[in-house]
């Protein structure tokens, strides 16, 4: 899993066992415990700032809220938390889930083509976003939680407000991805607002959103489809990875490739 970490623990999905694996990250990765409850592959995880709130998405069509207990036992024998609530409503695999900054709301993206906004206090879906014509693969909140960006297998990127209204659709051949959009993220920086996307066309794209939503630059270098991107907390760096088994680090302002790290296997998240 690609991430710029600042927690003592990292949460990673484990599709084959339908578990969430918790790893200690102080000096080297070590297994701290697992969360068990899904009945299908775990596809995405969202964690709040202090690591006390965890959401997971799955191919069992649900999102699960977890109470983190850091329970007894070690490694695979440790039940690190218990399932508090399953959020149900999607009609197909749930591919992505993210938390709002205050931890009160969540967004999910599903192969049923929709996004959903969830009130986590009530455990209910309060908005449904329906404009994508194929599976929705990725979704993200803006730093101020006022805007939402999504990507899809329909090759488009869409910008929404929190009322579920689609304000902008990026589908022009000269700018948009020419294959599935696999990942979208807002930059955490409020001084230089950006969106970064990745796709099965082997490209990472950087978008400006200050005055209008437009392509700033393409970051080319991957030799296979790109599954994942992540952005550093200060918004200056981006990491990407995918089919070619290489994690690439980029300077976003200059659009410059800095380093490549060989993972020696497909990078899925």
What does this structure look like?
There is one protein chain. The chain has 269 residues and is mostly beta strands. It has strands at residues 9-14, 19-24, 30-36, 42-47, 53-58, 62-68, 81-88, 94-99, 105-110, 115-119, 124-129, 136-141, 147-152, 157-161, 166-170, 181-186, 194-199, 203-208, 214-220, 226-231, 237-242, 246-251, 256-262. The protein has a 4-stranded antiparallel beta sheet, with no helix packed on it. A hairpin with a 3-residue loop joins β5 and β6. The radius of gyration is 18 Å and the shape is globular. The protein starts with 8 loop residues before the first strand and ends in a 7-residue tail after the last strand.
Widest sheet, order of strands: 4-5-6-7
- Count of helix runs: 0
Mean pLDDT across all amino acids: 90
Query: What distance lies between the first and last C-alpha atoms, to the nearest angstrom?
Result: 5 Å
Q: What is the chain-wise order of helices and strands?
A: EEEEEEEEEEEEEEEEEEEEEEE
The gross shape turns out to be: globular
**Structural class by sheet pairing and helices:** mainly beta
Low-confidence stretches: none
Q: How many beta-strand elements?
A: 23
How is the main sheet built? 4 strands, antiparallel
Radius of gyration using CA atoms only: 18 Å
| Approximate helicity band | under 10%
Instruction: Report strand %.
Output: over 45%
Keyword list:
mainly beta, globular, 4-stranded antiparallel beta sheet, about 270 residues
